[in-house]
Amino acid sequence: MNRDTSTDAVRVNARKTDAFDIFNFKHYIGPNPYLETGALVFDFAVTNNTEARPLEDYVAIISDRYPHLGEETYDSHAQLFARTTSEVGKLDMGLHLHHWSVKPNENFVTIAVQSLHARTTRSVVYCVWDWFEAITQHENFRLEDQIKTIQEIFRKSAYGGPTVYALWRTAYQNGIPTFYLWDEGLVQYGYGKKQVRGIATTFDCDSHLDSDFTTRKDDCKAFLATLGFPVPKGDIVYTLEEARAAAREIGYPVAVKPVVGHKGIGVTADVQSAEEMKYAFSRAVNAIPKDQPIQIIVEKSISGTDFRLLCVNGRFVAATERRPASIVGDGHSTIAELIERENRKPARIDTPTSPLGKIQCDEAMEMYLEEQELSLDSVIESDRIVYLRKVANLSAGGLSIDKTSDVHPDNIILAQDIAQHFHLTCLGIDVIAGDLAKSWKNGDFGIIEINAAPGIYMHLKPAVGESVDVPSHILETFFASEKDARLPIITFNKISVQELQEIIDDVLIRHPEWTIGAVCREGVFVNRSEKNLNKDYNSNVQNLLRNPKLDLLIAEYREDVLEKEGMFYHGSDIIVLDNPTETEMMLARGISDDSTLVIKEGDNISIRAKGLLEQYKLGVAEPFLRVYLKEIPKVA
Fold first, then answer.
1. Does the keyword Cytoplasm apply (predicted)?
2. Are the C-beta atoms of 518 and 547 separated by less than 8 Å?
């Protein structure tokens, strides 16, 4: 049983009226003495300043918000605090943070909760603490407001973009090691020579030339036309007068967009007149970076529905229909009121994992309403649907509908034929079509734009229809299995520089072409070449694992490093423990059937490999090195 205990330690955080105190925060990026994952660890105690209410009172109030927590049992306030923190830490976004632990001490309890972003998790802990204190004081607590604030903290973090997070979560679930490269602003998947680096759906194997080419809409459009693909007729203009002239020649309605751009920024569809052209041209110009010349595309608008076709590694994987934001009249509410009501729906919570964003009110929306002889103050009759935009911009409240299973085979071949011409992992093809179930060869189909860094959340979590697991398609392009992302790793709790060098020499005899990274408290080596030793121990480990030539990692993790920093990686092929402490035994935690564990306790040796256990005593003057050198050829 985990008992609640009071502490006489100096209060760092608790107020005089608080029943509980939390203190001694520490964040680990990877496995640590408390959890096998990255974690925020802190101490929890009862203060005795204010008497805590019975445990069941807290459970009753918390389970009103999280009913499933009321179905579980708790031994203490600390255990309930840890469990609640873990649940709130998912931020109503389904974050993959499920692990937590409670460790009793003499005067306090140490709590660990799985964490990805330190600031976000720390904010969650303080939120839960405030909630517990509000319960103690019989006060109301607006948890939803707190969660919304913390969602924004996570959203602005390196992990919070919907595409980045979706890939990160999928990698975690599939056992693919993943970490953020802060200096480069990139995510690395896999270790050493197995690695792939990228950000969102752009990766280091992608052609930067092809990526840049897709932003030059005029050249890209001409290229597609040369290949015989259906693109709308259009022209490049430089002034408003030229734009109006081009529109007259092409014939209204037209679409207007900047030559250089992406993600639909500055695009205006279905421009019907010279007056509308003024606004559309200005919007396109404002979207052009200051260092770029003014070049605007005016092209024929194609009637139909907006679709995104997504290809991964040259293969079609998903299709999504995108509808502009809309409201449905009720006969007495204004459009402004209907928008406000729509934005309060749970599906529009507007987080990185929500299927719908908030409907945005801006000049473009008001102009489109005016075209329909409406305004924000107009009252809409019951059941009438009013579209608020010409462009189906999902970030402005548009609707995403999965259409993957409806796509005609000819349209799949078209998408794949286009993708084959680009050295890009992911390619989004925006088209206007009457019906994707009909072949593009029958007309009523036009390619509007090619995207080199397409978002994937519209496919993974559409507002309507089935989910398509695009992150798995992407990661399977690089890693058929978890093993394809990993290198052999040998972990020691104690090893000297001399012993490291003997191991390196032994491996290089068998694999002279290999690059071996090794680190202990006394030095960092790549083969026999000594490198700079960073005072932050895990930075040395990361620097080796980010080496794109690395074939094997050898690392020492002693008790002081494990307690201070934890580990950088999870999983070793060989673990060698020399008279390990209780903390150092964590290195053997969760050992797989494919791994080898060698433990020396005094002169006693035990070797566990492939489910078998071997035990014996060291011979007189027999070095421990001789024992584990025999095991290393299993992986190196």
1. no
2. no
